[in-house]
Amino acid sequence: MKKLLRDGKTILIGHSLNNDLKALKLDHGRVIDTSLIFKHGDEANFRRPSLNNLCKAVLGYEVRKEGAPHDCLDDATAAMKLVLAKIESGLDNAIPLVHEGVPEIKKSKLLLHRIPVNVPGEELHKIIPGDFTIEIRPNKKAGGKKYSAFANFKNQEEANQAFENIDGYQEKDSDYTEMRFIPI
Fold first, then answer.
1. What domains lie within the chain, and their CATH numbers?
2. Which of 36, 101, 127, 134 could form an SS bridge with 56, CB 3.0 to 4.6 Å?
3. Which distant-in-sequence residues (6+ apart) come within 8 Å of 106 by Cβ?
């Protein structure tokens, strides 16, 4: 990699390259990161879209099917095709990602994370308004002290309304570089 990048003129293209460059202990000034150049709808969204979701929304195909092994050549090819699509549409023109291809069931879920294990799932009904079921997910990173859950609503509108009606505040989540909601 160092040989390819040493002239300073090479443009490095990829998806979420910050992790790769950090692991390789490389710094390069000419980078196009597909996780940063596409707008997620009209809303301010701090979450970066996955390469697979970008390909589905922009190019109309999946890089890999669920459960299929990772193939770095497929990822590199997809990233290049995404950059070419961005250039063809005009660099100043947004290619909005409106979650096309995402099943309605996934749109109607709210992710709840960092829940202390001493708070039972039933208690979440007292904090979050609306009619929903809870799907508990163990959190392996928190050493068994916290867990995550999905609040499953009947549709996207009910999930959005519940989120808007939670009494609390938002703060930047250091683990996920996105906004998280803290109930009071």
1. 2-89 (3.30.420.10), 104-183 (3.30.70.330)
2. 101
3. none
